Amino acid sequence: MNKLWIIIKREYLTRVMKKSFILFTILTPLLFAVFFGVVGYIMSYKNDVSQKIIVVDSGNLLNKSLKDENNLYFSFSNDDLETTKTNFDSKKYAGILYVPEIKEIQSKKHTIYFYADERLGLESTSIVENKIEDKIRDYKIEKLQLDKKQLESLDTKVALEPESIHPKDGKSEATSMTDKVGAGLGTFLGILLYMTILLYGSNVMRSVMEEKTNRVVEVIISSVKPTQLMLGKVIGVGMVGLTQFIIWGILMFVIQLAVQAFFGIDLQQYRQPNMATNVDPELMSSTMQQMVDEIFKINWWFVIPMFIFYFLSGYLLYASLFAAVGSAIGDDIGESQSLSMPLTIPIIMAFYIMFVSIRVPNSQLAVWSSIFPLFAPIVMPARLAFNPPMWQIILSVVVMIASTYFFVWLAGRIFRVGILMYGKKVTLRELGKWMFYKD
Amino acid sequence: MPILSLNKVTKSYQSKLAVNEVTFDMPEGTIFGMLGPNGAGKTSLIRIITTITKADSGSVFFDGSPINSKSAEKIGYMPEERGLYKKMKVGEQLIYLAQLRGMTDKEAKNAVKYWFEKFDIADWNNKKVEELSKGMSQKVQFIATVLHNPKLLILDEPFSGLDPVNANLIKDEIYELQQKGTSIIFSTHRMEQVEEICDNIVLINQGQNVLEGGVKEVKEQYKEHVFEIGYNGAISSTVLENITVVKHQDQKLLVKLEDAKNPNQILSHLINNGVQLHSFQEILPTLNDIFIKVVTNPNV
What we know:
The structure holds 2 protein chains of 2 kinds.
Chain A: H1 2-16, H2 19-43, E1 51-57, E2 72-76, H3 81-86, E3 95-99, E4 113-116, H4 122-143, H5 148-152, H6 176-214, H7 216-220, H8 226-263, H9 267-271, H10 273-278, H11 281-297, H12 300-328, H13 333-359, H14 364-369, H15 376-384, H16 390-418, H17 428-434
Parallel strand pairs in A: 1-2, 1-3
Antiparallel strand pairs in A: 3-4
Chain B: E1 2-13, E2 16-27, E3 31-35, H1 42-49, E4 57-62, E5 65-66, E6 75-78, H2 90-100, H3 105-119, H4 134-146, E7 152-156, H5 164-179, E8 183-188, H6 191-197, E9 200-205, E10 208-214, H7 215-221, E11 226-232, E12 244-249, E13 252-256, H8 263-272, E14 276-283, H9 287-296
Parallel strand pairs in B: 3-8, 3-9, 6-7, 7-8
Antiparallel strand pairs in B: 1-2, 1-4, 4-5, 9-10, 11-13, 11-14, 12-13
Helix pairs in contact in B: 2-3
């Protein structure tokens, strides 16, 4: 036990004290912030060349008005298309937008034309199309003598509110928002676990490979048991991961506070820029309020311990297997990929199943995947916010504990043979045989 | 009481028999040579002694009791293929390895200090192993092996890759440790080193010990009664008619006698024939000769 602790300490300290770790840990959130800032700026980049466009509206569909937008400036011509073309001053105008008259009012398609030397570009094209669509809609409403108010009342927003048949006292009811918040939380937890297992699992693998190639392992295991060495490494690296997450959590919080304090900007606004422009602010803030309410409604006393449980057991299970694979290979990176494949495939599969589980949390796939030990660590946390039945949780936890124990033991069996084996190309079948070797 | 006692130790890996009923005693406080060609089973045997693996059958006694994981703390093992953590600082690394062998933090620090002063390398403390030269890191490796004052030291090819100066330094340390009562197993296939350093040897071939005993006794046992005779003047060929001459060159005569024959007989024979003798000496076989002989003809 004591020696295990010595190994954990070394594995942890040598990583955490490295300059690259400190830089990576501190810079990553900053880089992310800068990255999203730059990407956001690039993505929201608008047309920066002002283009004047002459509109020939032969059917008078537009009622002589078209609002300028996105550096597109519209002016109407009183002449017909041919005259406008002959008088066209290409230095002053970018092109001629020709809107023919509507012959058949029932027609669902109407083609308009843009005459120019240069094309408009995707964004401007769709802006123009949308503008004209709206105008034609108004035109048709008028021509068909429809009541605009009645028309608007045709659109109804439906929200499905879940209600339990036997409501429990004192427990706040779930609303349609609960599922959305649950889905968000589930996705977040699932991705976090997925990243941890892949990132730190392969870190464990590489570190074992390095020790084996260095031949330092032979000295070490003359003083400690191979299983101790393996567990020490797995736990040490896991603690490095936790440290990193905690630092990131704190940094994100601090950065957000700092940005708010210095610029007076609420970052929440920027989270969903599309919604903010289309939805009226009152509705928006009430939605925000509702979300915050829902976040408090989630049973954190249940979700957090469960998440930690799946985090630890999932990490322990996979990292041990990664250690076993690392022990079987030397410094051959190509070989490591082919042997770690059977480990990465279930992780990636679990990742996709997680998304299905959020969409249909009670489907057969979701239920059985959250019990199957290789998928459960990623799938089950995603379902937790949807209050899955108790028997599933208990079964999943029991299966998880048993299989973590089993896989760590199994990995230890492979590890103890692997780290002393040199100059032999290892196949999966070989790994299987090692489990049954005697000491 | 022997420090190490092996009795019919057998170990097989799948179909291959790596160690086959090896039996020997290692007297305490001696330097014990474990010899054998590559692949003879030396490393397998060492791994059993260092508790890295277990024997399939047979028993190993260390310091009077069967070996267990605790006895590993009293053993220092330097494998042939050496390694240290490249990115770790020398001082930290040594303390870490000493702690794994059961020393407290304080004991480990004191021991590191002692060896740093002894080798005059205190300024290496904060260097990373990757910054050291090969010879330097070999020294660090040696310190790592002896840091925890092991009762039994197992050195697998300790001089490979060392320049003569550093090799001598390590050799002196080995002698000094022996003086202090440490028992040392010295595994190698370099015979001249064994003859120089070891008191006792065991020769392993194809998993079995084929030869065991003190270096002198083994040489006596395998001697072929070859004598070197130095003389002045000349010897006529008739004088040598009934003598088995191995080599005759530069007024030196190498002769082989029948087992029982007294060397005095040949001396008096030569003297009676008027040969001017000035030296007479028995030539014992080198361990190298014995090694090759035993390994190539297992039936001898």
